[in-house]
Amino acid sequence: MPLNHLPRITPDFYVKVKTPKGNKKWVVEVKPKAQCKPPKMPSRKTKKYLNEVRTWAVNDAKWKNAIEYCKDRDMEFIILTEVELMI
Asked: How far apart are CA 34 and CA 26, in angstroms?
């Protein structure tokens, strides 16, 4: 797939923290937990299910690109869900 056809991501947060060992940088995406895993196949393929599959495929492609982008720039990509945010 040509690079200009890769899904684009606009992260929710960029975090930079100074540590004794240098700066630590994160690119943070916030998503519902349900969108962070492939949907389960129902007994019949409904419109809702097909939409969930499409959402998952787009998110998965974006996240893979974001991981590589961050790796190349000495950053970490993390996804936070309501589980991590409800402390």
From this structure: 22
* pLDDT at residue number 10: 84
Sequence-separated (6 or more) residues with CB below 8 Å from residue 29: 9, 11, 12, 63, 66, 77, 78, 79, 80
d(CA 36, CA 48): 16
Give the integer Cα–Cα distance in Å for 41 and 28: 29
Q: What is the Cα–Cα distance from 63 to 26, expressed in whole angstroms?
A: 13
Structural tokens at position 2: 């040509």
pTM of the model: 0.77
